[in-house]
Amino acid sequence: RVKAEGRNALRVFDNELDAIVQARRMLEADLRSALSLGQFELFYQPVVDLQSGAVRSVEALLRWRHPVRGMVGPAEFIPLLEESGLINPVGDWVIEQACRDAVAMPGEVRVAVNVSPVQLRNRSLLGVVSPVLARTGLDPRRLDLEVTESILLERDAALLDDLRKLRDLGTQIVLDDFGTGYSSLSYIRMFPFDKLKIDKTFVDDLGRSDEADAVICAVIGLTKSLEIVSTAEGIETEDQAILLRAAGCMLGQGYLFGRPVPLAELCFEPRDVIRAA
Ligand code: C2E
Ligand code: MG
Ligand code: MG
Ligand code: MG
How far is Cα 91 from Cα 62, in angstroms, rounded to an integer? Predict the structure, then answer.
């Protein structure tokens, strides 16, 4: 009896697995045509100076307008794009669209683009980015490229060289989601980072315990001594913004200052964020 039940459970599990695999296949098939059907859109979220409230940059965040599912967020489809290799053509589109959009933004505002580690494998980032800059006419000094800690593990000399060359053009290299990976602090020094984004999970813990506050202060201290600009992600409350500013964090991003919105709805006015300290 136990055995029979075990078999039944397995069968149910099997069926569920089939359903998941099937759903993934359908999603992937839809993804294959999404680019040519023009279903991808870029939303933009402001990054503000925590002292002055000025909008310093906007981050391009990919959205998929699915005919049936409606607006789909990147968490649901970026992994699929990465596994299927579709991230390369889609990522190229993102870079081009963001640069095109940025040309029409106020000249002092930078645009930040997320780059997947898969896009950096077997391809030259410089080879992708420089023709786009030439085509769109965007000043390379207005572009930020956001990469995650996983690239620190791939000790890729060609990539490092590309990052240095881009940096020479004035494009800034940003370490995104800092603290969620497992990078050794010594690696950070080897890469030419201009900015570091402290992950939202740290910001969420702010003010909850002395230990959490100490960790974030230490990270901000590290950026200062490495002469890297610190950005805090996922700021939702004024208290978080005040604590971060007091700790010396330079830039902030989060719903407090504005959610990701379509280009047409983007507001470049300084945020009147922070009550006098
Ligand atoms: P990310 O680069 O760390 O982007 C920040 C994410 O945090 C965005 O989620 C943003 O909407 C969200 N966020 C910002 N402020 C707040 C806040 O105050 N509260 C909360 N709860 N969330 C906030 P989104 O747009 O869903 O993007 C998720 C991730 O998908 C991004 O994380 C990035 O890793 C990836 N992604 C987005 N667009 C692209 C893209 O064009 N290419 C690649 N390769 N990855 C992308
Ligand atoms: Mg990012
Ligand atoms: Mg991030
Ligand atoms: Mg994040």
Answer: 9
Token representation of residue 150: 């996983």
With a 6 Å cutoff on the Cβ, whether 96 touches ligand 1 is no
Instruction: Assess whether the C-beta atom of 92 lies below 6 angstroms from ligand 1.
Output: no
Give the rounded distance of the alpha carbon of 15 from its chain centre: 36
Neighbours of ion ligand 3 (CB under 5 A): 176-177, 233
DSSP 3-state of 221: helix
| Residues 225, 203: Cα–Cα separation, whole Å | 21
Q: For residue 277, what pLDDT band results from cuts at 50, 70 and 90?
A: very low
Q: What are the percentages of helix, strand and coil residues in the chain, rounded to 5?
A: 50, 20, 30
How many percent of the chain have pLDDT more than 70?
A: 96
Q: Distance, CA 232 to ligand 3 centroid (Å)? A: 9
Task: Give the number of the atom of ligand 1 that is nearest the alpha carbon of residue 256.
Answer: 18
SS3 (DSSP) at 137: coil
Residue 18: partners with Cβ closer than 8 Å, 6 or more residues away: none
Mean pLDDT of 83-101: 97
Token digits of residue 145: 């490229």
Compute the distance from residue 134 Cα to the ligand 3 centre, in Å.
Answer: 27
260 close to ligand 1 (CB < 6 Angstrom): yes
Q: Any idea which residue has 């989601």 for tokens?
A: 177
pLDDT of 275: 59
pLDDT category at 20 given cuts 50, 70, 90 is: confident
